[in-house]
Amino acid sequence: MIQLAPSILSADFSRLGKSVETIEKAGAHLIHVDVMDGHFVPNISFGSAVMKSLAGKTSMAFDVHLMIEEPDRYLEDFVTEQTEYITVHQEACVHLNRTLQHIKSLGVKAGIALNPATPLSVLEYCLEDVDMVLIMSVNPGFGGQRFIPSALNKVKRLYRMKNERNPKLKIEIDGGINLSNVRSVTDAGVEIVVAGSSVFGCEDVAGSVKKFITEFK
């Protein structure tokens, strides 16, 4: 099943709880939580307190994307009963395998995010150890960017690797995803679609979620 994970980075923070309620009722599957520190990426978003404020107010699981330096220092902060994934960037981890094992020791599924210029070869010795790979189809740091077309071929190659070495692996994509290109990425092998401004930037947020889900069928 293909899942939609709207990114609350693009939501109206003055009514965040209501926004999450809206996407849940419309059929969204996960809450994508983009955490930025102003160092690993040139922007600052929010920390664990914002995410935890939603715990218990929705049945959707948290899909946490840490765009931060030294992620091991903060992993525990993002663990709740609703946290399903914590994803880190390969470039931010001195000992990537150790970080992945740390995440799993917390009872959470571990993911690796690959920036547009990061090759799939970095997965060579850890593909079997991860639950999800997040393909960034924009350079991380800001919402509303245009989709980078080379990400599509990257997804296709990763899908072949998954089938050969880790069939249970989930492939996620984030960046510039909208109704005009979502079918191409899901056809290529994506199973979790992150959408930010193309969901929360619409006047009819619920309608946008429903349109995405219709594209998945």
UniProtKB/TrEMBL annotation:
Pathway(s) this gene product operates in, as recorded in its UniProt entry: Carbohydrate degradation
GO cellular component, one term: cytoplasm
Residue sites binding a divalent metal cation per the record: H32, D34, H65, D174
Chain residues that bind substrate: S7, H65, G141, F142, G143, G144, D174, G175, G176, G196, S197
Cofactor note: Binds 1 divalent metal cation per subunit.
Pfam families: Ribul_P_3_epim
Catalysed reaction equations from the record: D-ribulose 5-phosphate = D-xylulose 5-phosphate
Record's keyword annotation contains Isomerase: yes
Record-listed E.C. numbers: 5.1.3.1
Catalytic site: D34, D174
Function, in words: Catalyzes the reversible epimerization of D-ribulose 5-phosphate to D-xylulose 5-phosphate.
PANTHER family: RIBULOSE-5-PHOSPHATE-3-EPIMERASE
Annotated protein name in UniProt: Ribulose-phosphate 3-epimerase
Gene transcribed to yield this protein: rpe
